[in-house]
Specification:
It contains eight helices and ten strands. By secondary structure, the chain is α+β, with helices and mostly antiparallel strands. The protein folds into two domains: 248 residues; 85 residues. The longest helix is centred in the middle third of the chain and has 43 residues.
């Protein structure tokens, strides 16, 4: 008689994808691959990842995102995508803020001067000499003139910044000459590095340049394509999960707290993205705590306003509401529920109609013959 005790088969609360499910290449049949599940296993291992380091969780998400968009060549997955607000743009924001403050100060000064004029008319009723009143008014007039001079200098600086930026934009549209391929250093830029970004790129094939020229080198370096549109479809911020030894209730609380922490960073990423991409209407944001993740479609018109002078939201309560959206429901990577949500995210991209589909006119003379016509997205 066998000494083995039969073990009751208990169905797992989560259904995992299997390699057989990946036979179809259709977007609506996306399933997590073995690579995703292998990466999850390695990240959760107490032997291979005893410290539960965040970086060890990244491959599971990287494989998931790559698999998700593998049939869409215009979608590019990038790790630590450099999202930034250029220094001149930030300077313009600061100058605009100074301009508004100076205009407000000027109005206050003019109201004070007007009040002094009224006091001067009835000065026989006030215990103050005419000489003192004139002194106060003279100082205020000097402040007013100084404010007007400052306003003029601010407007001039804003105009110069806008002209310089327009000149750079014009040069970038000229093609691939050596003059447009200079690297630009921007120490004043405000840099962000989301853990993963899925970018939408539109490109056109360039005509073959003359051999042994600068244009040939640059054309080869860019794969023979010229990018004429870029936007971000999805941003993600990943964190490690709570400690493994916690009780279930403490662990669940920890997941929520960590996802909110990731959402806090995502709020600033989204704010920066909308600031430098005024035509962007929305972006998908993913917050993760290890294998637990949540997502929100972030609409620009409903997103909290940001004060880039203070580098903080204008209304903190709006950011709190934003973070709560991520904690309503979260999923476990590589489960069927998770795969379904990733398919839903991809459908948001497919349904979008707010992208340029035509190659810019300035670029057409530089293209290969079969790419000269407008293309479909």
């Amino acid at each position: 008689m066998s000494d083995l005790i039969p073990v009751k088969q208990v169905k797992s609360p989560f259904e995992f994808s299997t390699p057989a499910n990946m036979a179809s290449s259709a977007d609506d049949n996306y399933h997590s691959s073995d690579a995703v599940r292998n990466a999850l296993s390695r990240a959760y291992s107490t032997m291979l990842n005893p410290r539960s380091l965040e970086k060890v969780w990244h491959p599971a998400y990287g494989h998931s995102f790559h698999d998700l968009v593998r049939h869409h060549g215009e979608l590019v997955v990038s790790y630590q995508w450099p999202l930034y607000i250029p220094g001149p743009h930030l300077q313009n924001i600061r100058l605009d803020a100074q301009l508004k403050k100076a205009e407000s100060d000027q109005e206050k000064i003019e109201r004070t001067i007007a009040a002094l004029d009224q006091r001067d008319i009835g000065s026989d009723k006030i215990r103050k000499s005419q000489r003192l009143l004139e002194g106060e008014q003279s100082k205020l007039e000097e402040m007013k003139n100084a404010t007007l001079d400052f306003l003029s200098s601010v407007v001039d600086q804003i105009t110069k910044n806008n002209k310089a930026r327009a000149k750079l934009d014009d040069r970038e549209a000229d093609g691939v000459s050596v003059h447009t391929m200079r690297s630009v250093h921007d120490k004043q830029a405000l840099d962000y590095f989301p853990d993963y970004a899925v970018c939408h790129l539109l490109t056109a094939e360039l005509a073959s340049p003359m051999p042994d020229t600068h244009n040939e080198r640059h054309a080869l370096s860019r794969g023979g394509y010229k990018t004429y549109h870029e936007c971000i479809f999805m941003l993600s911020e990943l964190k490690p999960p709570p400690r493994r030894h916690l009780s279930q209730s403490k662990y669940d609380e920890g997941v929520i707290m960590i996802i909110r922490s990731a959402a806090q960073q995502l709020a600033e990423y989204c704010a920066a993205y909308f600031e430098v991409n005024p035509n962007a209407g929305s972006v998908i944001a993913i917050a993760a705590a290890g294998h637990h993740w949540s997502w929100v479609k972030v609409e620009k018109k409903q997103f909290p306003q940001w004060d880039w002078v203070r580098k903080a939201p204008k209304h903190k309560n709006q950011v709190s509401a934003f973070k709560k959206k991520f904690t309503r429901k979260h999923y476990i990577l590589a489960t069927t529920d998770s795969d379904q949500q990733l398919r839903k995210i991809l459908q948001h991209f497919i349904a979008r109609k707010d992208h340029p589909v035509a190659v810019p006119d300035a670029l057409i003379p530089l293209l290969a013959q079969d790419e000269s016509a407008d293309g479909d997205e």
